Amino acid sequence: MSGDASVSDLATAARLVRDARRIVVFSGAGVSAESGIDTFRTEGGFWQRYPPEEFGTPMGLAKLYAADPARLARFLEELVGPIACAAPNPGHQALAALERGIASRGGALTVITQNVDALHQEAGNSAVHEIHGSMFDIVDAEGRALRRLERPELARIADALARSQRGLFKRTRLARALLPLIGLPSAGTWTQPRHRPSVVMFGEALAEPAWQRAQAAARQADLVLVVGTSGLVYPAATIPELATDAGARLIEVGPERAFDGIWLPGKAGEVLPALVADPAPS
Ligand code: NAD
Questions:
Q1: For 78-137, what is each residue's pLDDT tens digit?
Q2: Domain spans in the chain, listed from the N-terminal domain onward
Q3: Atom of ligand 1 at shortest range from CA of 28
Q4: 137: Cβ below 6 Å to ligand 1?
Q5: Nearest CA to ligand 1 atom 18
Q6: Is 29 in the pocket of ligand 1 (CB under 6 A)?
Q7: Which of the residues are catalytic?
Q8: Nearest-CA residue for atom 35 of ligand 1
Q9: Which pLDDT tens digit goes with each residue over 30-88?
Q10: Gap from CA of 228 to ligand 1 centroid (Å)
């Protein structure tokens, strides 16, 4: 196992996991890092290359579309491409195994994720609240569900985005490449697309009913397992405290520490399998 998780911390954490009846997992970009999807805030991360003021809001995207479609296409390709190719890693798989284990003991595990990559569900977790939406759920201008994309379809969109900036008519070609994902009105404005992924952008409300359900699950948890998040995005980052305020214990997994509780430093794909496989002695 990488990092410095002490044997005693791991044993204590494993005992808490084994004894818990209602576990809430609160996950962020770090749990998917080993699946090849960049984190956002870490050194050299996505937001350093693509500042959120420019790339994280509909208005920012609208300006880029008008002024620099090639840069916008590169951003979207880098955002969508890795998600389209990703598969669950041992960290996701350990959480799915944990759900099966706790269910067999009459308990329940709920994943509250900030990620939009659907990898928890693909690994086998059944109760997943995607509080920042999903890259795969296409919604209309009012937020109503229209259809669900499959991963290969997303891969084709990423390829089309890459090809769109070769040759003339870059803006038109970008709009066409994006059409299965984002439906731009004829005026080309990004502020009110006809359809788009349900991904929550800066300044937008969290996804519903996921957010209400996530808060309810956090309040009922006896253990919150925080994995791969900087804890800097609000209001999502209130979830661990909501759980601990209601009496839950907290375990955090990741190279950096953001919350009070037991910290198991290291990569999710290495620490989580060890945590789940290490039944603490009674
Ligand atoms: P973040 O980028 O702010 O923080 C990532 C955290 O993960 C850091 O603390 C980092 O130390 C840790 N980390 C890096 N590698 C790790 C590993 N192998 N194992 C465990 N931890 C690791 O991410 P955030 O807190 O989730 O906030 C970013 C926002 O951007 C989220 O709201 C999310 O919606 C979105 N996002 C989603 C994805 C995705 O869907 N996979 C990817 C990037 C960003």
A1: 999 999 999 999 999 999 999 999 999 999 999 999 999 999 999 999 999 999 999 999
A2: 1-35+89-135+206-282, 38-85+146-198
A3: 26
A4: no
A5: 267
A6: yes
A7: 132
A8: 115
A9: 999 999 998 987 777 788 889 988 898 878 888 888 888 899 999 999 999 999 999 99
A10: 6
- Reference 157, options 134, 173, 180; nearest CA is 180
Q: Is 94 in the pocket of ligand 1 (CB under 6 A)?
A: no
The residues pairing with 109 across neighbouring beta strands, listed in sequence order, are 23
Report CA(139)–ligand 1 centroid distance (Å). Answer: 24
User: Does the predicted TM-score (pTM) go above 0.90?
Assistant: yes
The token duo for 275 is: 């945590």
1-35+89-135+206-282 has which fold?
A: Rossmann fold (3.40.50)
Interatomic CA distance for residues 281 and 270, integer angstroms: 21
Query: What six digits make up the tokens of 245?
Result: 């305020």
Whether omega for the bond prior to residue 51 falls within 30 degrees of 0, making it cis, is no
Sign of CA dihedral 102, 126, 217, 90: positive
Whether residue 27 has its Cβ less than 6 Å from ligand 1: no
